[in-house]
Amino acid sequence: LVIEGSFFSASKSTVVNYKHHSLISIDQNGMIDRVINEHQEDYDQVRKRADHAGRLIELQPDEYLLPGFIDLHVHAPQWPQAGLALDRPLNEWLNHYTFPLEARYQDSQFAQHVYEQLVPELLANGTTTALYFGTIHNSANLILAKAAVKFGQRAFIGKVAMDNPEQTPSYYRDESSQAALSQTDEFIQKMESLQQQTGGHITPVITPRFVPSCTDETLNGLGQIARKYDLPIQSHCSESNWEHQYVIDRFGQHDAQVLDKFGLLTQRSVMAHGTQLDDTDIDLFKQRGSAVAHCPISNAYFGNGVLPVNKLIVNHNKIGLGSDISGGYSPSLYENSRQAVQASRMLEDGTDTTLPASKRGASNRRISMKTSFYMATVGGADSLNIMAGKIEPGYVADLQIVQDKNADFAAEPADVLDRLMYQTSPATIKKVFVGGQLVTEK
Ligand code: GUN
Ligand code: FE
């Protein structure tokens, strides 16, 4: 396959490169093997060959190619309640909405109904890779994996472990620590055989829901399983006042230190939220090579704080974006990119001089839309240690073709990228590819 058109791809957290009118050549394995610019000798030859073979996709003048987006934090089972009960505090929301909903996934038909809607919805929003929380039920988690394979999404999926009777309801918890661990092990085996049968892009993930919901035995056992199989790990970390304080009361330590103690803070870890992380925690994340999934929409509702995202960027921590469906209501990383910029602006230099400086925000807190674009692409890929998120040889061909609605009004390329990030919706995402395969078309 060869795609002809102009594209954007981030190289650093503040630098997005624009390439005008190029050929992006994709090999049999769904990898980008060449990017050819108009002045290269064999441009016409490569173009002609692809065209004759019926394998040339030409972008319209108002269309641009972008890397597919990588959503680092999605609760797949919560899709039916996206937008509901966002005014409840986190622990109430969990107990009155989320746990009752997630318990329904012991019904495989319900699981299939939801998951076969969610996966195409995310693809239609340009999300080519998702890091999913499932539920405690392996049958439903495998249905999610099959939906990802069916619709062609790159998916990292975790069987949720939650066995602490003090923080989970009797109708929705792992029966014991042993059950949580053996079912995690079983899920890993089943994912491996499904992957081999189908050739799908699916990976199992070690998933303690968050520290409060797990016993020490389970946290410890999951750390061991992660090490044994060398697998990615995901959880929530220092999300809200209540949750952060709960962990301090139980362990006398912050989430980051507790996760680390149990072997759950590795270079394959992606931890959601982090609004309450202090500088020591941020440095521990950096030392371990662990990533933060920044969920700016969700944080506004449940986080009791704003993640100082630029602090992590400047510190070279690994960081990407997460929708946190349904703590966040939107399945779109475009919308989350906008909220990430807006939230960062509100941390910067408050003007109320009657407040102490520490309450007024600080300088150097804002991020630009280019940094959001970086997090949605390169930052997400680095967090998952995958060769994705860039349009360069050696990277997977996970791509989206988007239309500039205001192309009538000429703008510099750097401004066009901002416009696309602010204006794109599923209606203007024309085609989406994962591993060179067309998975969504308008
Ligand atoms: N903490 C534990 N579980 C959850 C969840 O499902 N969503 C969010 N936002 N936080 C959590
Ligand atoms: Fe979450």
Bound molecules: guanine, fe (iii) ion
Estimated share of beta-strand residues: 15-25%
| Strand order, sheet with most strands | 3-2-1-4
Task: Note poorly predicted spans.
Answer: none
The tally of beta strands, per DSSP, is 16
Helical amount among residues, as a percent range? 25-40%
**What is the residue-mean pLDDT, rounded to a whole number?**
97
Q: Note the total helix count.
A: 14
Structural class: alpha/beta
H and E order: EEEHEEEHHEHEHEHEHHEHEHHEHHEHEE
Task: Please describe the structure with a list of short key phrases separated by commas or semicolons.
442 residues, alpha/beta, four-stranded mixed β-sheet, four-stranded antiparallel β-sheet, 14 helices, globular, binds guanine, binds fe (iii) ion
Offer a concise description of the structure.
This protein is an alpha/beta fold and 442 residues long.
Folded structure, characterized:
By secondary structure, the protein is α/β, with parallel strands linked by helices. Helix content is 39%, strand content 23%. It contains 14 helices and 16 strands. The strands form four sheets. Strands 3-2-1-4 form a four-stranded mixed beta sheet. Strands 5-14-15-16 form a four-stranded antiparallel beta sheet, with helices on one face. β11 (269-273), α9 (279-288) and β12 form a beta-alpha-beta unit. The mean pLDDT is 97. The structure holds guanine and fe (iii) ion (FE). The site of fe (iii) ion (FE) has 6 residues, from β6.
